[in-house]
Amino acid sequence: MVVGPGIPEAKPPSLFVLAGEPSGDFHAALLGKEILRLCPQASLTGVGGPRMRQAGFRLVYDSSNWGAMGLSQAIPKIPGLLLVLHRLVASLKDSPPDLAILLDFGAFNLRFGPRLKALGIPVLYYFPPGSWNRQPANVEPLARACDVVVSPFPWSAQALRTKGIDAHFFGHPLLDVHASVSGGSANLRNPRLPSPNPTIGLFPGSRKHEIKHILPHLLSAAQEIGKRLPGARFVVSQVPNLNPSLFSSTLRSPQWRRLDIQLTSDTASLLKSSVLALAASGSITLEAALCGLPMVVVYRGSLAMWVQYRLFLRNLRYMAMPNILAGEAIVPELRQSEASGKRIAQAALNILLDPGVYSKMSQDLLRSTLPLQPRGAVEKTARLALEMARNPRPTLEKE
């Protein structure tokens, strides 16, 4: 299904977008830029982080620190978020937008959406919660929260349609970001080892607790790798929603001073220049897969998160997105106590020092992302959003 060309508009459309976590901020910014490209007069307001602000949104709340993982982190945030929810509803009642777009952040948005609909505001849910899961949970809260869904995963859209939800799959937006990747053999990276200065990317995550609990172990792994590969260069991905001091304070520790460690905020360039990624479980693993970049994936957290993991997540077959997509263990996953510096380093060296393992992993990663095609998802979603803003019941062309 593709959205038809724009129709003449009587007034500039106003859109309100809510993204409660860094990944949502990233995708909302991509969408906002495309909306403004298609309709420069559009008014974009919302809740998000630095990327949305840079993309042209007027933010009424900054959600950079709203994200939480596990009950221990979420519970203290509840009173403040309930107050924000009340204030947003009151504000939008007085000045309703033509369309509201919600991104992920289900704990908040699944409560916010029905209130928006009660005000007569059409709602588009982009990146529905848990859409990566091939066996979706109860979809009734999602149906109550929105009019239309755009999912980045084909099985999610299909499952939602069987439940009567107006759901669409246009491809995964990250394919537009990493446009040079086609999944063909021309894009397969070759091991650049032995090399005098191989670059290894460290991607500790986008939340404070991830920097605290994961970055030190990635640095410890870098230290171990450096013993086998003395010329290795290590670069840490520093996300814009977090205070740079979180990274610099860790790197200033005397135990890491002998490491050749650099920081960068250009994640896309780091993915392209690295020969291997040491990455926290999350959307970055999908980005690395789209680049055919071999990786070691880490999940590690606080004591409370460890308890939650033992109770609810221990039996989860896969946590890394490439493994979820493939339905098999393409890349190594190290969880909680397994994710020590030595274990991470050993898994990394097993990949780096075996060209056969390295090449196969790269090919398997690229193949795992083929179901996420076609490209063009951001533009199609932007066109759908603009049409919904002009007409709550958009007319869509058949696929």
Task: Produce the secondary structure layout.
Layout: E1 14-19, H1 22-38, E2 43-48, H2 50-55, E3 58-62, H3 71-74, H4 78-94, E4 99-103, H5 106-118, E5 123-126, H6 140-145, E6 148-150, H7 154-162, E7 167-168, H8 174-177, E8 199-203, H9 208-213, H10 215-228, E9 233-237, H11 244-251, E10 261-264, H12 267-273, E11 276-280, H13 283-290, E12 295-299, H14 303-313, H15 321-326, E13 333-335, H16 341-352, H17 355-368, H18 377-390
Parallel strand pairs: 1-2, 1-4, 2-3, 4-5, 5-6, 6-7, 8-9, 8-11, 9-10, 11-12, 12-13
Description of the structure:
With 399 residues, this protein is an alpha/beta fold. The protein has two domains: 14-178 and 375-390, Rossmann fold (3-Layer(aba) Sandwich), CATH 3.40.50.2000; 186-372, 3-Layer(aba) Sandwich (Rossmann fold). 44% of the residues lie in helices and 15% in strands. The strands form two sheets. A seven-stranded parallel beta sheet has the order 3-2-1-4-5-6-7, sandwiched between helices. Strand 1 (14-19), helix 1 and strand 2 form a beta-alpha-beta unit. The chain is globular. The protein starts with 13 loop residues before the first strand and ends in a 9-residue tail after the last helix. The model is unreliable at 181-192 and 394-399 (pLDDT under 50).
